Amino acid sequence: MLELIDITFLIAAFVTLFVVIDPIGTAPLFLALTQGMTPARRRAIGLRACVISAILLALFGIAGEDFLRSIGISMPAFQIAGGILLFLTALDMLFDRRGQRRADHADESKGALADDPSVFPLAMPLIAGPGAMATMVLLIGETGRSIEGVALITGVMLVVIALVLLAFLLAAPLERILRRTGTMVMTRLFGLLLAALSVQFVLNGATAIGILPVVAGGL
Questions:
Q1: Which of 44-49's residues contact partners 24+ apart within 8 Å by CB, and which partners?
Q2: Is the pTM of the predicted complex or chain greater than 0.70?
Q3: pLDDT in tens, 117-159
């Protein structure tokens, strides 16, 4: 049986990862990014995004800090790059460029390859973002990088990812309630929020390397 201190630490780890990954907050973004897709394809994209993000977080938690340091990349630089890429996706959502691209693909199979958000931006950086990756590094570091500690933190992370998948699966019924007009409004709204989130990533990275003073409310 785990000692009390271990259980307390695991609860703290779960709360931390839940807040950073934010399953509830990612569901509307998933809804907007998969607008107009069939339920089967939406489920496949959601599952693929969760599996990929879980693998990324596990690998990064174990070896991420050493890997980035070995190739001369700092975590702030990682945050800034992820924020810029995320901002480009937000622009697509705001100006409906994704819908225009879908209309250009008569062949559904070609369209699936050209417009699949499961890897980017869903798996990374929305789920396995810089904040979540840094959190995994810190939590595993707190355990002394022991085999038991790595296994426990990875298990906690998988529980949070499972909650993300559940939130994704519940997003489809929400779209049926909102219908096309409501979905279009939500796409623009969450595109704006996604743009703000991407800017926050860049600000956090710039703050960490001393370009800007401390930014309140950072991720």
A1: 44/118, 45/116, 45/117, 45/118, 45/122, 46/118, 46/122, 46/165, 46/168, 46/169, 47/165, 48/118, 48/119, 48/123, 49/117, 49/118, 49/119, 49/122, 49/123, 49/127, 49/168
A2: yes
A3: 999 889 998 899 888 998 898 888 888 888 888 999 999 999 9
